[in-house]
Every structure is written in structure tokens, then in C-alpha cells.
């Protein structure tokens, strides 16, 4: 990135990051790794840190202790409404799909969940979200009601446009999510009552939303 005459290193870093937020190269939830940005701009970490503080003051970036800086959610109200709706339709789709799931389907879902569990050691929110969608797809794709399935697909697509990964905001939620996945699989294997399974799938979805809302309501962490 070519410097502008009279522009300080922190201003250049600020402009570079802000441009990438604007064109969605750095999407909602994207983690801003100071060392990587400094290397890209051939500067020290200090001006990058100053740029992050400016972007945080503008509401474009948040800072979470033990997580770091990341791009904010685009439209939090839309995210909340989408998650609430998806909890309903995906929970219902999962209950309708359950009788159609084979032992091979369950084995595949469990294998994906194991990948998610192993990924917790070196947590990468975007990859975790990809695996999460793969897991749930196994459970809801056999849904025999095409209208319900269409609503589920629309919900997932809407989420993708609103954030890169909710788990980047609430990484601790990932551990519980893996445990809840196994609980869902056990319910399916036990031929649980459809309503019990639907409610369990719904709670699983809303728990992620609740974790995010609780995190947003918490006092802000100290800046980097």
C-alpha cells in the first residue's frame, strides 16, 4: 500500500484496515491479527495498535481479552431476528428429518463433530463455522417438507451475509456446541419424541444467540 504524503504510519494502517472493512475483505467477525497486518504494511505493531484503537472508537472494531481485535457484526438486530427464526425452522426440520437419517448419516455427523472437537485446540472460528454448517446439514437436509427446508437454507444464507463467524465473538460457546451436537445425535439414535428433539435443536441454536447477546451486554475489555 503506497503511503500518502504527510500520513503517519498509524494513519496508513488505519486507512488500510478501514478500506478492507468497507469492501468486506475483512467481514463481520474477522480477526485482526496485529502482527500480520504490521508485516503486510512493513511497520511495527505499534502503529497498527493505534489504528485499531481509532477503529474501535468509531465502532468498526471490537476488542475482546484473549480473543483480540475483530470486525464488528454488521446488523445486530437482523442477526438476532435471523437466529430466532432459524431456531424455529431448523429445529422443526431436524425433527422431520430424524426418521430418515441412516446409521451412515449419524456416523458422518459424528465424524464432523469430532473434527470440530479436535479443532478447539487451535481454534479458528471461520473453519469451526464451516464444520458446524456441515454437521447441521446432515441433520436437516433429509427434511421431507421442501418449504421448511427452503426456509432453513435462507436462514443460513442470511447468517453468512451478516457475519463471518459468531464463534469469533464467543469462542467459549464452541465447546458447549460440540457437546450439544452429541446430545442431538443421541436423541436421534434413541428415536426420541419429535417434539423433544425439535426443542433440543431449538435450544442449541438460541444458546449461541444468548451467548452473543450476553457478551455484547458485558462491559468492554481494555483496548489492546
TrEMBL record:
Entries under SMART domains matching the protein: FCD, HTH_GNTR
InterPro entries for the chain: GntR_C (IPR011711), TF_FadR/GntR_C (IPR008920), Tscrpt_reg_HTH_GntR (IPR000524), WH-like_DNA-bd_sf (IPR036388), WH_DNA-bd_sf (IPR036390)
SUPFAM superfamilies xref list: GntR ligand-binding domain-like, Winged helix' DNA-binding domain
Membrane-spanning ranges: none
Cited PROSITE patterns: HTH_GNTR
Alphabetized UniProt keyword annotations: DNA-binding, Transcription, Transcription regulation
Residue stretches making up the HTH gntR-type domain: 7-74
Protein name as annotated: GntR family transcriptional regulator
Annotated organism of origin: Amycolatopsis albidoflavus
Amino acid at each position: 500500500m503506497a503511503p500518502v504524503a504527510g500520513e503517519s504510519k498509524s494513519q496508513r494502517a488505519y486507512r488500510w484496515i478501514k478500506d478492507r472493512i468497507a469492501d468486506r475483505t475483512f467481514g463481520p467477525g474477522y480477526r485482526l491479527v496485529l502482527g500480520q497486518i504490521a508485516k503486510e504494511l512493513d511497520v511495527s505493531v505499534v502503529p497498527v495498535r493505534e489504528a485499531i484503537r481509532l477503529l474501535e472508537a468509531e465502532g468498526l472494531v471490537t476488542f475482546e481479552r484473549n480473543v483480540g481485535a475483530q470486525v464488528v457484526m454488521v446488523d445486530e438486530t437482523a442477526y438476532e431476528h435471523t437466529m430466532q427464526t432459524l431456531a424455529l425452522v431448523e429445529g422443526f426440520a431436524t425433527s422431520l428429518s430424524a426418521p430418515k437419517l441412516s446409521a451412515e448419516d449419524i456416523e458422518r455427523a459424528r465424524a464432523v463433530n469430532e473434527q470440530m472437537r479436535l479443532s478447539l485446540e487451535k481454534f479458528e472460528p471461520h473453519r469451526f463455522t464451516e464444520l458446524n454448517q456441515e454437521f447441521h446439514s446432515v441433520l436437516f437436509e433429509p427434511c421431507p417438507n421442501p418449504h421448511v427446508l427452503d426456509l432453513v437454507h435462507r436462514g443460513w444464507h442470511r447468517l453468512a451475509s451478516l457475519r463471518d463467524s459468531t464463534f469469533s465473538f464467543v469462542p467459549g460457546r464452541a465447546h458447549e456446541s460440540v457437546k450439544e451436537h452429541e446430545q442431538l445425535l443421541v436423541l436421534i439414535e434413541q428415536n426420541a419424541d419429535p417434539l423433544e428433539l425439535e426443542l433440543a435443536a431449538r435450544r442449541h441454536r438460541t444458546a449461541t444467540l444468548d451467548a452473543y447477546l450476553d457478551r455484547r451486554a458485558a462491559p468492554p475489555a481494555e483496548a489492546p
